[in-house]
Amino acid sequence: MSDDAEKAVWKGGPSQVVNLPTFAASALVAMVFLVVGPQFPGIQNYIMLGAVIPAIWAGWKWLVVRCRRFEITTERLKLIQGVLNQDIDEIELYRVKDTRVLRPLWLRLFGLGNVVLETSDRTHPNSVLPAIKDAMEVRETLREHVENLREQKRVREVDFDQTGDSEFGDELS
Questions:
Q1: Cα separation, 149 vs 154, whole angstroms
Q2: Number of folded domains in the chain?
Q3: DSSP per residue over 99-161, as a string?
Q4: Within-domain flag for 107
Q5: How far is CA 16 from CA 31, 68, 116, 132, 143, in A?
């Protein structure tokens, strides 16, 4: 074990841009209630109260994204999520096999991207850090610390293909 203490190297979370469709739909439904409400004077207040439901839904979606956090330390990736009950998962960095960045057009418009991780972790074989600001830099930071930790712990990844053969051919037989 190293004498170096584990340090946080990056903290962040997804952008609220992921909620853009939800916010737009909520606003549209709320507007319908507010426009239709005055057409029925007897039950106007009840109909207009219906505009509160999409606002609550949008607020909940905002809170879910706001409570989702990611932290890269020198040894692991922490995935924190949950509004009422919190779920904290960790992926040891030496288990990260591959990373990539996906930048669909609608996220690129906002300078965001998805960092996708392929790991040998049983609970999180494929993890996504969605709608991350500066996704390329986050991926580079992650890759750098994965390599450092693998070298430090002397960990090497050996992949086996579908038939069970290793990348070394018959050398291991």
A1: 8
A2: 1
A3: EEEE--HHHHTTTEEEEEEEES-SS-SEEEEEEEETHHHHHHHHHHHHHHHHHHHT-----B-
A4: yes
A5: 21, 11, 19, 10, 26
Q: Which residue has the tokens 């990844």?
A: 157
pLDDT attached to residue 26 = 95
Strand order in the sheet with 112-119: 96-102, 112-119, 126-133
Give residue-wise pLDDT tens across range 48-85. Answer: 788 899 999 999 999 999 999 999 999 999 999 999 99
Output phi, psi for 118, to 5 deg. Answer: -110, 125
Is residue 13 one of the residues assigned to a domain? yes
Q: How far apart are CA 136 and CA 127, in angstroms?
A: 16
Q: How far apart are CA 103 and CA 37, in angstroms?
A: 42
Q: Output the pTM of the full model.
A: 0.79
> Which DSSP helix (H) or strand (E) runs through 21?
helix 20-36
